[in-house]
Specification:
Keywords: Membrane, Transmembrane, Transmembrane helix. The protein is mainly alpha-helical and 38 residues long. The protein is 71% helix and 0% strand. 0% of the residues are buried.
């Protein structure tokens, strides 16, 4: 199994973090019922 280049590894980590943060933000907005539009 070939190792992924560092750039691809970092990109995958960043995408996962953004996904988790986005889902958490949407869940919090849905729970509070007061969407904060930036």
């Amino acid at each position: 199994m070939p190792r992924l280049p560092v750039s691809q590894g970092l990109m995958a980590i960043v995408l996962v973090l953004l996904l988790v943060i986005g889902l958490g933000w949407l869940t919090r907005q849905a729970m509070t019922g007061m969407p904060l539009l930036s």
